[in-house]
Amino acid sequence: MNKTSILIVEDDKAVRNLMTTTMQANGYAYHTAETGESAILQAVSAKPDVILLDLGLPDIDGVEIIKKVRSWTNNPIIVVSARSEDRDKIDALDAGADDYLTKPFSVDELLARIRVAIRKMRYDNSDAAKDLSVFNNGGLKIDYAAGCVFVDGTEIHLTPIEYKLLCLLAKNVGKVLTHNFIMREIWVNASQCDTPSLRVFMATLRKKIEKNPSEPVYIQTHIGVGYRMIRIQNESFSENT
Predict the structure, then answer these.
(1) What share of the chain is helix, strand, coil (3-state, %, to 5)?
(2) Where do the OmpR/PhoB-type domain residues begin and end (predicted)?
(3) Superfamily of domain 5-125
(4) Is 177 in a helix, a strand, or coil?
(5) Domain 128-229 falls under CATH 1.10.10.10
(6) Could you please report the per-residue DSSP string of 75-128?
(7) What tens digit of pLDDT does each residue of 20-73 get?
């Protein structure tokens, strides 16, 4: 069985060495790049399963690399950057990054983000995903064909906007979706909604699907950036009702 391959794009030698050692210790194959130009070449030639990308490269800004790579592949891109401003995160995620980890980072958290990205990639690439009509995640079930939502076997009645929000998050499970992306996808005219209004819709949705909305299990908030549907461990998508 082929190892999952990781492309590490990082110009800081110490951080790059930490990442390569971590990948090796956890059974991943890896490639490295120190510049944006090299990263693009490696992305084309090595066809990595996951890209770990620093934004502050010496030749090309990381956001531009994301846009270029996204023109030919949907494989996960996890930004690992010292840039911690919300605007930087939003720009990277809107450009097509799947996740954003701020330096300094925990190795355990980095590995967890990689595992989530790999699970989503494998699901997206599976034949079952193309024909799937039911989404299962822990106690949450969405029957797309019937337009119904169940939590722990009990049907939950959602408004049309709440249902569209939940489906958007579910179809991008594991991926951080920015406020702007969500508003563009849900409302034909983005001016019909703003970030404070979106927060209200999310709050009402959480009250209906979460046992404890103040400690959400399914929908994670990334403050100032957006939201993510969390993949519940030991559960998978299923066509079974």
Answers:
(1) 45, 20, 35
(2) 132-231
(3) Response regulator (3.40.50.2300)
(4) strand
(5) yes
(6) S-EEEEES---HHHHHHHHHHT-SEEEESS--HHHHHHHHHHHHHHHHHHHSHH
(7) 999 999 999 999 999 999 999 999 999 999 999 999 999 999 999 999 999 888
**pLDDT tens-digit map of 208-225:** 999 998 899 999 999 999
User: What is the rounded distance in angstroms from the CA atom of residue 158 to the CA atom of residue 137?
Assistant: 17
Q: Which two tokens stand for residue 110?
A: 């980095």
Task: Give the domain ranges of the chain.
Answer: 5-125, 128-229
Q: Are 103 and 76 in contact (CB under 8 A)?
A: no
CB 218 within 8 A of CB 138: yes
CA torsion through residues 104, 109, 114, 120, sign: negative
Give per-residue pLDDT as tens, 111-121: 999 998 898 88
Question: Which uninterrupted H or E stretch holds 185?
Answer: helix 179-186
Cα(130)–Cα(132) distance, integer angstroms: 6
